[in-house]
Amino acid sequence: MEREYDGRGLELGDVIEETDAYTRYEVSYRSGELTISGIMNVPAGDGPFPVLILAHGYIDPEIYTTGRGLAREQDYLARQGYAVLHTDYRNHAGSDDDPDNEVRLRLGYTADVIDAVLAVRESSSPYLDGDRVGLLGRSMGGGVVLNALVVEPGLVDAAVIYASVSSDTVDNFDMWIRGEPERGELTEQIIDAYGAPEDNPQFWRNVSPRTFFDRVTEPVLIHHGTADDTCPIDWAYETRDALDEAGAEVTLEVYDGEQHAFEPQWQESIERTAAFFDDHL
């Protein structure tokens, strides 16, 4: 919250694919001192088009390739007339490396999403309407979006999160770092740096977006399935209730029997997503 963000230098690179509805480009932009890679789907036509920034869930950076993740959403939303920028994040694909990102609880991803929005807003591209921008994040990317909303109030016009991680960072630390035996070294590094949650609760409150939900100014739509065994449905209820209590405009759509990957009811969810962005962008 205390730092300044200066996302800039958005560049459309090589054409990856041309479809009947949009052209897919390689893109890059600047986030602080780093160059971040990604892809952008630009709808056919003259533009300018409203823009959606997509924040993907966890994919091992060792196997990640540019634009990987949220493939269905990238395609569908571009076909609805949105320019879709899918950021790779630092340490992924063609992005620059940040060796401290894991110990810093991956907060660098939040900076990369904020700077993606700012890079779009300052771009002179005739394809992009920088006055109409939304965020969409899935799983880990849902947490990234929640972080961005509390760090930079008014950053975007609306936000959607799918099957999100918890808005309490302790839940995520216990689930995927302290709770994983093979991540013992990273657990020790994080505890050495900040203290364990039970020993330094103030730090862990202050690194959780839920603590600062009173700063959220954008309407938020949450999608979550009751059978999600990666991110429990209780996390969605807790996030919804905390946002509502803080005065934010929030809607939770619950999908009975739907799992983390969203398969049978994905079409219904994406149609709701497009309608939500249409209303607010």
Automatic annotation (TrEMBL):
Gene3D superfamilies: alpha/beta hydrolase. Coiled coil: none annotated. It comes from the Bacteria. InterPro entries: AB_hydrolase_fold, FrsA_esterase, Peptidase_S9_cat. Pfam families: Peptidase_S9 (PF00326). One of its GO terms (biological process) is proteolysis. Signal peptide: none annotated. Keywords: Hydrolase. GO terms for molecular function: carboxylic ester hydrolase activity; serine-type peptidase activity. Residues 73-281 form the Peptidase S9 prolyl oligopeptidase catalytic domain. Belongs to the AB hydrolase superfamily. This is Alpha/beta fold hydrolase.
